[in-house]
Write a structure and sequence with these properties.
Belongs to the short-chain dehydrogenases/reductases (SDR) family. By secondary structure, the chain is of the alpha/beta class. The chain contains ten helices and nine strands. The chain is about 50% helix and about 15% strand. The structure holds NADP nicotinamide-adenine-dinucleotide phosphate.
């Protein structure tokens, strides 16, 4: 049985991906800060999906310094071999960058550590092993935010553009290496999805989720899993999201950034 490591598996898209991987016969290593929620997931898999799936719960805050390396070392110590890495954990911060105070800047730094640094470090560590084995897969979770600048969520959008560019570039390197022929690397770019993200990012203040079509985490995870298995590089779930990304290609950057601001504006803006 192959093992998948999923970060941010305690809720939303990661939680749904974990159940899909379990259904498809993978053992799981699930990571997040909320151990209790990961234990609920483990129980749900054991009672509702399969008693043969081994679920290893690891509580970790991936925004902390060296967290990725510690997670990797812990996995090695437990003798686990990871065939698939899903870098899903991510957070957002809503608000005007010019008005960020020290406290929000601290949160912003933690977001950059989680959304970018942990993704880069985990990718490097596990990709090294996959290259030695000549086998494996990495699915990084970005967003349709990667395709445009995002006023009122500037660092979050930029972090997802980083993940997008990074993943596509590494994929091209790996594909052109004889040891990487059997390694799948993809990036999943959801649009607005009904998860804990809207609340945790303070996006409830924004009109984004009212103006855009919102998908369920289950649907996003199903599409993500299916397309990743097929080897699709950039996975954008939902026709509405695909059209939105496609259209931005033909619009001026100036127009796109204004459009993104309109989408992100506060609900009660007068
Ligand atoms: N929902 C959307 O509209 C949307 C759209 C596009 C892209 N995405 C992306 O999808 C991914 C999953 O988000 P989601 O929508 O499923 O949101 P979610 O329900 O809030 O899930 C986020 C996951 O990340 C974990 N996490 C947060 N901070 C962490 C930290 N410091 N260390 C380790 N784990 C941490 C959370 O667990 P704990 O709190 O237990 O740590 C949770 O499991 C993110 O990368 C997000 O940027 C979401």
């Amino acid at each position: 049985m192959e093992t998948v490591l999923i970060t941010g598996a305690s809720s939303g898209i990661g939680y749904e991906l974990a159940k899909i991987y379990a259904k498809n016969g993978y053992n799981l290593v699930v990571v997040a800060r909320s151990r209790d929620k990961l234990e609920v997931l483990k129980k749900e898999i054991f009672e509702g999906i399969s008693k043969n799936v081994k679920v290893t719960v690891i509580e970790a805050d991936l925004s902390l310094e060296n967290a990725a390396k510690r997670l990797y070392n812990r996995i090695k110590l437990e003798g686990l071999k990871i065939e698939v890495l899903v870098n899903n954990a991510g957070v957002g911060i809503y608000g005007k960058f010019s008005e960020f105070n020290e406290k929000i800047m601290e949160k912003n730094g933690a977001m950059i550590n989680l959304n970018i640094k942990a993704v880069v470090e985990l990718t490097r560590l596990f990709l090294g092993d996959m290259m030695k084995d000549g086998n494996g897969g990495i699915l990084n979770v970005s967003s349709i935010a990667a395709f445009m600048p995002g006023p009122l969520m500037s660092t979050y959008y930029a972090s997802k553009a980083f993940v997008q560019s990074f993943t596509e570039a590494v994929r091209e390197e790996v594909r052109n290496d004889i040891r990487g022929k059997n390694i799948k690397i993809s990036v999943l770019c959801p649009g607005p999805t009904d998860t804990g993200f809207e609340k945790s990012s303070n996006l409830t203040e924004s009109s984004l989720f009212e103006k855009m079509k919102v998908m369920t985490a289950k649907k996003v995870a199903e599409i993500g899993y299916k397309e990743f298995q097929k080897g699709k590089v950039v996975i954008i779930p939902g026709i509405f999201n695909r059209i939105a990304v496609f259209v931005t290609r033909f619009l001026s950057r100036k127009f796109v950034v204004k459009m993104a601001r309109k989408l992100q504006e506060k609900k009660n803006k007068n």
